[in-house]
Amino acid sequence: MLALKIAALLVFLLIALGLGLGLYTWFRARALEAAYPNRGTLIDVGGYRMNALHVPQGPQAELPPLVFIHGASGNLLDPAGAFLKPLTGRGELLFVDRPGHGYSERGGPENAFPAGQADAIVKVLDHYRIGKAIIVSHSFGGSIAASLALRHPERVSGLVFLAPATHPWPGGVDWYYRVASTPGIGWLFTRLISLPAGLQRMESGAKAVFHPNPVPPGYTERAAIPLVLRPATFAANAEDVANLHDYVSRIAKDYPKITAPTVIITGDSDDIVLEEIHSRGLARDIKGSELLWIRGLGHKPDYIATDLAIAAIEKLSGKAHDLQAEARVLEGRLARSKP
Question: Mutual orientation of helices 2-35 and 185-192 as an angle, nearest 10°?
C-alpha cells in the first residue's frame, strides 16, 4: 500500500512538473514575441505565409537586388543586423525568414528540406517582382542558396557563401536536434525542456558560434535569436538540421552544374562548420568560384568580415576588387585584435 502511495505521489509530481514547464514555455514564448515583434511583412505564397523585410533601392543604387538567407537557429534579423545599414540605398534588399523560422509559417513537408525552402524564397522574389539577384547566405543557408542556384538558375546573378554548410560531413548532429525532431518525444521536448534550457545557454551559445572572435555587444537581442526557442520554431530548426546530412549527400554531386559567379568566405577557426569539407568542397565543385580563406576567423563572417562580404558583392556586381588582398588585410586586423 505504501509503495502504491509513493508511486502515485511521484506520478502526481511528474504531471505537476510537466504542467508547470508547459505553462512556463507557453507564457515565455508569448513574451519573446512581445520582446521581438515582427519587423517584416507576411506574404501569402500559396497555402502559407512567408515573412520578409524588403528595402527598395535608393535613387543612387548601383548594386543589383540582394537576397539574404540566414542560417540555423536564426531569422531575417541576423543578416539584417550585419548588412541592412551599410547596404540600404545601394540596391534592393530582401531579408527572408526561412519557412518555420522567425515569423514565416512552416508550409508543407517539402519545406523540411533546402530544396523546398529555396522554392519558397523564389515565391517571395516573385511577389516583389525581383528577377535575378545576388544570393548571400550564411551557414545552413548555404545549402539553400546552392539548391536555389540549381533549381532556379535564371534567378541568380551571383552567389556569396559565408561559412556555408553544403557537403556531407563525418559524424552527426547535436543530440537535441535528433530528440526535438523525433515524433512524439520531440513534441514533449520542445514544449517542456528546450525553451528554459535554451535560455540558460543563449549567451554561451553565441560565444561558441563567434569563437574565436568576440560577440558584438547586444547581438542576441538585436538579432532576436531567442525566437528560435519557441516550440514550433525549435522543432522546425531541429528538423532542418537533422535532415541536412542526407540531403547534401544527394545533391552535392550536382554542384558542378552551378554556373553563377561565386565567392566563398570562410575561416580556419570555424568550430561549427568544417571549412575544409564545405567551403573547400564548394570551391572545388563550382568552376571559377573564388575562395577567401581567413586565418583567425570563426563561423560569423557576416559580422566579423562584413566589409569583405560587401566587397565580394561589389565584385560580383562588376566593380574592381582584389579580394585576396583585402582578405589578407582582414587577417592582419584579426591578428592584432587578439587579446
Answer: 70
Domain residue limits, the chain: 36-336
- Tell which CATH architecture fits domain 36-336: 3-Layer(aba) Sandwich (3.40)
Contact 305, 298 (CB under 8 A): no
Please name the residue that has the C-alpha cell 530548426. 237
Q: Which of 57, 120, 136 is nearest to 91 (CA)?
A: 57
| Residues 63 and 90: beta-carbon distance below 8 Å | yes
Which helix (H) or strand (E) segment holds residue 151: the answer is helix 141-151
Return the closest-CA partner of residue 303 out of 190, 175, 210, 240.
210
Q: Decide: 224 and 36 in contact? Cβ < 8 Å.
A: yes
Q: How many residues does this entry show for the chain? A: 339
pTM confidence score = 0.94
Q: Are strands 41-44 and 49-55 parallel, antiparallel or unpaired?
A: antiparallel
For residue 201, report the phi and psi dihedrals to the nearest 5 degrees: -105, 5
Cell match 514565416: residue? 104
Residue 7, pLDDT > 90, answer no
pLDDT 10s digits, 144-184: 999 999 999 999 999 999 999 999 999 888 888 989 999 99
